Amino acid sequence: MTAGSGLSRLEGHDKVTGAARYAYEYPVEDVLYVWPVGATVASGTVTEVDSTAALADPEVVAVIDHTNAPRLLPAVTADELVLQSPTVAYRGQIVAAVVATTIEAAQEGAEQVLVRYVEHGHKVVLDPEDPDLEQPETTNAGFPGTSIKGDVDAALAAADVVVDTVYTTPAQHNNPMETVAIIARWDGERLLLHDSNQGPWAAATAFGMLWGIPPSQVDVVTEHVGGGFGSKVWPTAGAVVATVAARVTGRPCKLMLTRQQMYTMAPARTATRSRIRLGARSDGTLTAIDHDALQYSSVIHEFVEQTGSATRTMYASDNLRIRHRLARLNLPTPRVMRAPGKTPGMFALESAMDELAYALDLDPLALRLRNEPATEPASGLPFDGRHLVDCLQAGADKFGWASRDPTPGARRRGRWLFGTGLASAMYPVYQQGGKATARAEPDGTFDVWVAAVDIGTGSRTALWQAAVDALGVPPSQVSIHIGHSAYGQAALAGGSAGTASWGGAVRKACLELSRRVAEHGGAVPSDGLEVTADTAEDQLAPDRARHSYGAHFCAVRVDADTGQVRVDRLLGVFAHGHALNARTTHSQLLGGMVMGVSMALCEQTVVDPRLGLFVNHDLAQYHVATNADIRGLEAHSLERADDDVTLVGGKGIGELGIVGSAAAVANAVFHATGVRVRDLPITPERVRAR
Amino acid sequence: MTDQLRGDVVLRVNGEDRVVNLDNRSTLLDALREHLRLTGTKKGCDHGQCGACTVLVDGERANSCLLLAVAAEGREVTTVEGLADEDELHPLQRAFIAHDGFQCGYCTPGQLCSAIGMLAEVADGMPSWISADLTATPDLDDDEIRERMSGNLCRCGAYAGIVAAIREVADG
Ligand code: FES
Ligand code: FES
Predict the structure, then answer these.
(1) Is the pLDDT of residue B88 over 80?
(2) I want to staple A423 with a disulfide (CB 3.0 to 4.6 A). Which of A109, A541, A663, B150 is the partner?
């Protein structure tokens, strides 16, 4: 039995010796380097691309713009349709690309390209009074844009206590440590890629759509990926331009976006503004929940963050209203970043619950327990394994919540103010169908292939463990092969569904292969035995509300003079069902919590309204949590049998740890200081502005 | 680019002299990755802001993206590929595996080189920004490790494992 055990990562040795190859690192003969040029206006039309100076350097092979680029077909969003028209929809949009024999010449050439524009007016500020706001029908992940149950306005008017507050989260950038990286080559009508993505099969499909060829003609190798967090789910504009350059030059082309280019040539999380209204009886029973969520998309593609989607499912109320509104701005199309919708939405809802607890003079834990729903509030569906209360209670015990004095601003030692706060977490269960192949050789060895990808989640190791378990043979006889589109249709590493989806197919293929081997009396014929399984038909019925749950308990200290916040302790308890690998599961939960602290205290992409520019577009100015910011992290897992809903048992893990964590920090800051910070990040000046 | 802006550079990397013909503007990082095919050293920002490119230069940690390759001539460069002794992993490499001090692994080569350089700094008595006494022998508690390793970002958030791994090696 290997599943669940804390086995170390199969690729661990390669990763600590530098042997693990990421997309950009494959040696390719005769390769050219691609350097994209971004627009320097936020809205306009390109009137001229003057490449004379750039082409004067003999090391510059080509300059590509919309006048000489090959045509692409629509795939996922308009952002990928690079160099197809002179229209500029946002600053930083790719308007040209320089291809050269060295990195240095490509970069220098990009500086030399002169682009002239006619500028149009632009809009880059998320404004609730924007007269052009749209009311989208649906959001990302297929939730309705608007859901209404009961009569929220009447219930708010009749409530004993009402909290009516606005929370904002800024635009945030995924910033995986490895930027977008790709090596592209054309072999006739076949496109060969070494690409950093969150699913080689999905990449093959999307690149195929862009070029009008079937996915079988796109070969994508993705052996190791330096993080994604949502930014590499779909091909980025940056990656597509490398395929364009390879087409134009007829030579292999490689591209690695600079950190600065990642801010506009790869996606981000939208800024959000949530107005939350909660109505309650004096005993704490919620009578109304209203979540009015505002977010933005670009002017060229509609992407609607599902900001209100967690509010559909968290707390009981007869009257529930969730609305999404969308601004269309001259910014890159935002897309998913770790727990889209849940992360900003739960910051708002869990902060508002804390405010309501104070308004009612009730313990925030008791308030949550009082409003535990019997069925999912918005859908009316029965729950499969709802363990929020378990998580809250286990966390309270481990953290020592019971002895907490709720008075804000009452604990000071020297210049430090101390406080604690809690917040709930949830993430839905997703599982997608896909294929895996398992093969037995006469020498007793087994190989398993699945077009999975390991972006750091530990999926390679977990899938191998799933294969070993299903085959019931010694681990040393089993090899797992992932990271290649040729292994067949497969899910993405997205929606925390990767390992469950791939693992389901691996398990099915291996169980069937075992049966076939047994049919042969255990003797594998000389040409081997091979099974390809497809889990398209084995999916979860939509008759239950299935989510992972969690609870965060946070202790902070706040410098009374400067307003600086330090997280001393962040304890999470999570119910995610059976873990294929306890060690990598723990690391993923911790990683989500680290990103939550980072979101709470540091992360924001600042937009200059005049220039339409993401001002702080690098890691010196866009701050992410460093080692010194992280202390006292603890993640605990609760295993509950009724959480085993996917084909491999457990629910998703990768995104759960970030959800709610920023609210736990903000609630602890309020307890420490009496200052309620409703706008992320919780910067010193916001804490001081009392 | 005209020929006088290129030239042969002798780089001593992992104990071996290597001659490469480079654009004079090449960073040590690009020379390693693109010309010497030592791709273990990673590029995360190219601007000295992330630590992914950390190597040891004459035993001290340095951001190879901030060093021109020509300026590294005559110096001893050690990359992640040079940490293990043949097949025997360096104790820190073993500890990173044992404590799951990485997820995607992209920051890991930089973390390892940085940690080796950092432990040497501590052995030399170098204080950090949070050391209470600037002249005393540093007491390498967890907060000191965190502080001294904060030039190496890990977006996967593997910090707890990184600190535990370095702790184990520091304690011997
Ligand atoms: S790549 Fe050198 S510090 Fe980031
Ligand atoms: S392990 Fe992914 S950035 Fe550190």
Answers:
(1) yes
(2) A663
Query: Hey, of B54, B152, B154, B155, which one would you mutate to test binding to chain A, going by the most A CBs within 10 A of its CB?
Result: B155
A274-287 burial string, b = 16+ CB within 10 Å, else e? bbbbbbbeeebbbb
| CATH 1.10.150.120 location in chain B | 91-170
Q: What share of chain A is helix, strand, coil (3-state, %, to 5)?
A: 30, 30, 45
> Measured from the CA of B151, which atom of ligand 1 is nearest?
3
In this predicted model, what pLDDT tens digit does every residue of A671-690 receive, in sequence order?
999 999 999 999 999 999 86
Strands A218-221 and A190-195: parallel
CATH H-level, domain B91-170: superfamily: [2Fe-2S]-binding domain (1.10.150.120)
Residue A33: closest CA among A186, A257, A367: A257
Same topology for domains A140-171+269-429+543-688 and A431-534, yes or no?
Answer: yes
Separation of alpha carbons A456 and B45, rounded Å: 19
Token pair recorded at residue B121: 């700094």
For residue A76, pLDDT over 60 is answered with yes
Residue A350 known to be catalytic: no
Q: Is the pLDDT of residue A531 over 80?
A: yes
Backbone angles phi, psi at B120, to 5 degrees: -65, -40
β-strands A565-575, A633-638: how paired? Answer: parallel
ipTM for this prediction: 0.98
Is the whole-model pTM more than 0.95? yes
Indicate which residue's Cα is closest to atom 3 of ligand 2: B154
Q: What is the pLDDT of residues A589-640, one digit of tens each?
A: 999 999 999 999 999 999 999 999 999 999 999 999 999 999 999 999 998 8
